[in-house]
Each structure stands twice: as C-alpha cells, then as structure tokens.
Amino acid sequence: FSIRSLPPPLCISISGHVHDFRVTLAFLLFMCLSRMIVTATCPLPCVCASDIISCSGRNLSTMPPDLPSYVTRLDFGHNALSALLSDWSDRPLDRLTVLVLSRNSITHLAPNAFAPSPHLRHLDLSSNWLSSLNTSAFRGLEELEVLLLFGNLICQTMTGGFQGLSSLERLYLGGNRLADFPLELYQGDGALPRLHFLDLSMNMVRHVPVQSILSLAAWQQGGIYLHGNPLVCDCALRAMLEYWERREFRPILDYREEYPCSLGQEWLNCSGSPWEGFHGTVQEVYQVEPGNWLMLPCPGISLPLQKGAAVFWVTPGQGSPVLGLTGDQNAHLRVLANGTLEIQGASPEDSGTYTCVAVRGQTRRPNQTIEVTVYAGNDSRLAESGGARSGGGEHFNTAFTTLASCVVSIILVLLYLYLTPCRCGRAGGEGGCGGKAMLFCADPREAELADRRVTGGKRVAFLETVDKYPQRCSAKQSAVDTAATEGILKNGNSYSIFSVCLCAFLCLFVYIN
Asked: In order of start, what are the domains of the chain with their CATH numbers?
C-alpha cells in the first residue's frame, strides 16, 4: 500500500488554509481496515467460510471466545467438551440456526444452556455421555425442529425435559438405555404437538403401550421406530405391527427383520386356528337410527378367539379413544369377548370410520378391509357413499308411494263427484238413476217429482228413491253405496281422505328433513 501512489486529495482547512492531508488520510484508511479485520476475525483453531464456522476435530475443551455474531452454522464436533454452560458465548448469536456438538464428552447441560442461540432449528448432541436431561436445558428453543440425542447414555426422559419445544418435528433417541416408551412426548402437558418422527431403536424397551400408540394419528404412528429393542412378542404388539404393515408405515417396511415379533415368524395363537378361516360376513357400511344399538363384527378374524387374543377398535375422530377387550372403555362403546364392537344408544357423533386392529395371520387376505363405516341418523355423507346396508331408502320410497296414492285417490274421487254425467229424470222412469244417486240439474223445477223433497234453488241434491230399475246405473250404484257406507259423501266426511293424506305428507316432510 503506497501513499504516494494516491492522487492529490482535496484538502479543506477550517481556518481556510490548504494543508497536505496525505498522512491523515492514510491513517484513517488504516484504522477502518483494521477495524474490519478485527470484526471478521475467524477463531484461530477454526475454519471459516462466509457465515459457516467449523471447529471440528481440534481437541477443544472449551468454546473459543469472540465468536462472530454473523455465524449461521457452527460445528464443534469431535472435540473434548465436557459440559455446556449458559455463558459459552459472550454475545448473542441471533443468526445461528445449526449447532453441531456431536462426538464430544458432554455429560451435563446447564439450565438455559442455549440462551445465546434462541433461533436454533437443528441441534446435534449425538454420541456424548449424557445420562439425563435437565428439565430446563432446552428452554427457549421454540423454533427447534430437529434434535439429535442418539448414542448417549440416557436411561429416562424426565417429565418436562422437552417442554417448550413446540416446533420440534424429529427427535432421535436411538442407541440409548431407555427401558420405557416415552409416552409423555405425546400426552400431557409436555406433549410435542408437531412431533412426527421418533427414533427409539437400539434401546432396552421391552413393552410398549399398544393401545395408547394406536390412539395417535396416522402421521404420528408412521414415524415411530422401535426396531432393535428386546420387545416381548405378544398378541397386542403383533396386531399393531400387522396394522402398520397394512398402512405401509416405513418403520415396519424398512426394518421388518429387526423386530423380534416379525410377521414372517411362526404362528401365534392370537386369533382362531389358522385352518378355521374367516368367520361370518361383515358389511362395510352400516346405518343406525339415533338411540338404537349397533353391533360391528371385526372383519377378517377367525373365531373363536384364543386365550390372550388382542382386539382393538380405533374410533373415528382426532384424539378419540382406542377400545380393547380389557381396560377403560367408553360409556356407550364396548368390545365384546368375540371382538365385536357394541355401540349403545348411537348418536350422530358416532358416525365415521372404525378400524379393527387384530391378529389375522395366515387367514388374512390382502384385499380384505379392516374398516367399517357407520352413519348414525340422516347423514349427508350417506348419499355420497352410495347408501348403507340398512333400509333408509326403503323408508323414503314407502312414504313417497303413500303420498302419491293419496293424491291419486283424491283426484279420482273428485272426478267421480263432479265430472261423471248423470241425467235427471222421473222416479221410475227409464232415464232415471235408480237408488241413491247424486243429480246435477240445471233447473230446480226439473227435479220436482212425486214423493221427493227438493230444496229450491239447489243444484246438487241427494235423492232417495225406490230402486225400480236396479239394472240401470249399476256401476254408480255400487260406488255411491260404498261411499255412503263409509260416510264420505252422504255423511259429510269427505275431508277424511284429505286429512289422512295431509298427515302422510307431513310425515314425509318430517322424515326427509
């Protein structure tokens, strides 16, 4: 850098005199460059590339000071760190999103250990010596999405140890010493709402809460890895693994041979004998009126069930309970000894898809359904599905037919009363209508016949005459006599048919709506 190579600068003097400021200008430039160099200095044992700093494999026992605040990825793997305190950085690292601390000797995480980096999204603590987790170690990491803890000595996850990780999606706990399934990750106050991947492989878990796991959503179950554990192979676990295989979950498809309860092993007496085959016929769609009882046989199982068999029914709805042959059961839902689900006093809330989880073994057919759909009441989804097996459509057809019959009957009666011609004549004349008939006369005087009372000015009169010509108007005679006998025409009860039809119409209207 040569000062003489610079062109003559413009120099301004407050006193109005022009001075040579070459030395002053060079000094200012030197100070600015020095400041930039100091600010962007990379820690001595590390390698820096833009906003990435790697201090991996440097045998560091402490964090180097003066970490730059612009760093977004920091790698301290393969070192000799033994603990992580809350003051490991002397300045906030607000842009840090990835922190790698794998393959160290960390045995302790201080409370609020990650306070300097509140925006972490990926934290790798794998292959360390952690045996327990402080309940407040991960406090403040609300944006953390991936947490790697595999290859440690963790024997239990303390309740609340992961509390506050509301954005955590993937948790790796494989290769530890866990003996119990950490159900608190999915239930209770410390539940992780977005967790969809949980690696528990290569631990010491012997029993898993099958009924509780089945109650999780499918996107949560599909990410639980249990291979490499000394699992006790019982009917409940076998049923869950069969269910996972049918749903094509990756844990069972990718590590089928690493489960001690592999589906390819010998037959377990968890259902009926394999040669008995499928028992009975099961519908896929059911409809039940609200308040009635409904029985749902478990599809595809062989009967009778063997001792120790496990049958679970997954009820519809998010967070709905899973019912088994034993344990707590809902007030109006009960699993019978033969695996049938009994719904007592069905309500519209019971509508949905029910899944029967059971061991079917060699009798299971690949295309056989394990789900049944229930519609309680007049559910609009019933029409979309093509109708249930019950007679909902028959009820509608019967009511519609009744209404149509009533309307046709009224029309025929009105046609007979008002449009059928009948000639007025003398009693006993050839043109008269014998018996009891209805006359339509244009003039009242034409109806003045002997032994007949006619009200003057009336155009319609009921005539009671002697049947001198029974052979005439025989068809009308029968019809009118029948009407008179039923009290429709003569007794003034012609509104009876209308009332009956109105009631039928109202019943149809109520049924449809």
From this structure: 285-390 (2.60.40.10), 393-512 (no CATH)
User: How confident is the model at residue 309, as a pLDDT?
Assistant: 83
The per-residue pLDDT of the chain, averaged, comes to: 74
Yes or no: say if 313 and 307 are a contact pair by the CB < 8 Å rule.
Answer: no
User: Distance between CA 456 and CA 64 in Å, rounded?
Assistant: 125
| Backbone torsions φ then ψ of 218, nearest 5 degrees | -60, -35
**Which residue carries 């962007």 as its tokens?**
40
Q: Are the beta carbons of 374 and 363 closer than 8 angstroms?
A: no
* CA 142 – CA 55 distance, rounded (Å): 26
Range among 188-192, 223-227, 238-242 with highest mean pLDDT value: 223-227
Q: Is residue 130 within 8 Å of residue 109, measured between CB atoms?
A: yes
Q: Which amino acid is at 229?
A: N
Q: What angle do CA 239, 242, 245 make, to 5 degrees?
A: 150
Where helices occur in 45-147 by DSSP H, the ranges are: none
For residue 488, pLDDT over 50 is answered with no
CA distance 363 to 360: 6
For residue 73, the Cα-to-chain-centroid distance in whole angstroms is: 38
Collapsing DSSP to helix, strand or coil, 148 comes out as strand
Q: How confident is the model at residue 362 (pLDDT cuts 50, 70, 90)?
A: low
Q: Which two tokens stand for residue 119?
A: 């925006």
Residue 9 pLDDT: 44
Count Cβ atoms below 10 Å from residue 402 Cβ, excluding itself. Answer: 17
Q: Looking at residues 290-306, what average pLDDT do you find?
A: 85
The residue written with tokens 């390819």 in the block is 264
Interval 150-159: pLDDT, tens: 999 999 887 7
Alpha carbons within 13 A on the beta-carbon side of 197:
12
Kind of pairing between the strands at 83-84 and 108-109: parallel
